[in-house]
Every structure is written in structure tokens, then in C-alpha cells.
């Protein structure tokens, strides 16, 4: 039997840590209304464990936050790691006289929504700005198989976004009026109602909105562990961003204001190996349970990626390589979109069923990402004989393919 001490990523996630992850993911934070997660869950958590010398930046146009380990120290090399708190949501589109509330489906496939319980949030019509929640509704489209077209019964024809509505079980007279009197109106957000649970398979879990409460949880856990033995030479900007799902607008605004030297997006990725119908597309074989992912291509820095890889190899932390073409699809693009210079990359956790009510992940991948980043930040802190990574290191670290060793 091996006497090797297991790393945290080789063990099951402890209950207390899983419960905090569940709390982060459960926060009702649809796009544009992210404060439930950023202010309600994560800001109090940061305030409990961060040193008094740190500071929290807040913003006028979004509910994002940045926990700054060395406020005002613009002389230090800065690393920003970003998770996004916003969840894709449904929106009220129109209320009909029979009580149907027609909705927009945003980035959901309509066929994945039917029958699921949701929560609708609306303002008190007598007190604008004061929100109320309404549970007990489900998303529907056809009503019953008896009302469907033959092609829909065979599966040859699917559901269209304009067919989807929220069923609040209204009946009797004045259904529309009674709904409007509740304060429900066009644009009100609706989110899926399924907090995460541990799965049947070992160390798996499933539920709604792993995208991207997981990225925010990872950012918070990195901050918590590093706060116990703070970095001396690196200024870390732990960032919870907004509006990622509609264009990375929150991260772009935040990064554009603080202009970090290094920027790392922390987001979910795909388990391509288990994705149905993808074999013919020959996708990169990312697999749930085999470690976190590091993205190559797009605007990512090869030098930064090599630092992450070396740190993980030294600690035996499992990782997988992913690649992107023009766009990482994550907040790693924030510096490029904001138009300033930063070494950037994207890390992720392969999940299944993205943008559904049953997103599925593996705690080992999440833990590997946390400890992979901790190892990376400590390696950066110890570079240059304990003086830390410098901006010149980033400028002069670009790989030179003209000096590549020939194998022929």
C-alpha cells in the first residue's frame, strides 16, 4: 500500500465545503440581478476570512465585486481571477387572458424546459424596487400529448421558443388582471428551481446553474486558502463578475477599470467525451473527473499556461488541455474586450448537460482547479528568487518558435 499523502483533489469534497458550494450555486442571481450571489453570499464570506488589509471594490453599473489583497499597490504585479455570478434566465414576454405567461427562453433549448419548476421574481407594484418571488409554476409548451402534432409525437419536430409559457395554474375570471395585480410584467426574470445534490456516481453532483456558480465558488475557495498564508509579492484581485452570459460585459467593465497584469477566467467547460452525438465532430477529449481544464488558443498566453502547467506537474494536480479558436467564450476575454494589455487564460471544469436543469459535475475537477491555482499563485510569488513574477517576465516570456528544437 502506498504511503503517499493524498492531495485534496484525490479525496471526496468535505460536507462543509460542499454545503458552501451548494449555497453559492443556489443564490438567485439571474443576469442583471446578481447581487444575491455577489453581495448576499460571497461578500460576507470574503469578509470573514480576508485580512483587514484587503479591500472590496464595488461598482456603479453592476453588482460585481473585487476582493483586492493589496489595495493601492499598483507597483505590484497583479493577478485577477474571475468567476461570473449571473445565471441564464427566462423572461416574461406577454400575459394572456387565460393566465398563460409567455416567456423568452434565452440560452436554453426549449425542449429541455418543459415540466420543470421555476421561480419568478417580480417587483411589488406599490413599491418599485422591492422584489417578491413566486414559486409553484412550471414551464410548458404543448399542454398534453393529445394536443401535439403527429411530427412532435414522433420527435421529428421539436419545440420553438415562442411556444413556451409559464403555468401558474390560474383559472376562473380575470386571470390576466389577477396576474398583473401581483406585479408580474414583461421582462421579469424566471430561473430554474433545482439546488445541487450529490449524484449517484462517486463524487458527482448535479442540479441547475453550475454555470457559473462553480467559477465563483472556486475563486472564493482560492481566496480562503491563500488567506491563511498570504502571498507576499503578488496582488490578487478575486473577482465576481456579472453579465457574462450576454457578452462578458461585467468582467470587461471591471477589468477595464482595474487593469490587471494577468487575467484568468474561471468557468465551466464541456465533458466532450460524454456529449451525445459529438463523436463525428472529433472534439477534444475532455472528461469529467480527470482534472480541470486549461485553454490554449484564442487570446490565451502560452507563457502563462506554461506556468500553470509546471505548478500543477510539481504538485501532481490533474489537468486537461482544451483549445479555442477566436474566442474562449469566457471572462478570460475581458482584457481583450476592454482594450488593454494582460496575459490571459481560461481554466474550467468539464461538466455535462450545460444550460439545463441537470448540469452534472465532479468535485475532483473543482478541487483540482482550486489547488492548481493556489500552486500557480505560489509559484508566481516565489519566482525571481523569492521576489515574485514581474511585468518584464510576462513581456519577455513569449515562446520563440524560431529556437524550437528540431526532431528531424
Automatic annotation (TrEMBL):
GO molecular function, one term: metal ion binding
GO annotation, biological process: proteolysis
Gene3D superfamilies reported in the protein's UniProt record: Peptidase M42, domain 2, Zn peptidases
Alphabetized Pfam families for the sequence: Peptidase_M42 (PF05343)
Amino acid composition bias (Basic and acidic residues), ranges on this chain: 388-401
Region ranges (Disordered): 388-408
Keywords from the named record: Aminopeptidase, Hydrolase, Metal-binding, Protease
Similarity section: Belongs to the peptidase M42 family.
Matches recorded under PANTHER family: AMINOPEPTIDASE, AMINOPEPTIDASE YHFE-RELATED
Name of the molecule in the record: Peptidase M42
Species of origin: Rubritalea profundi
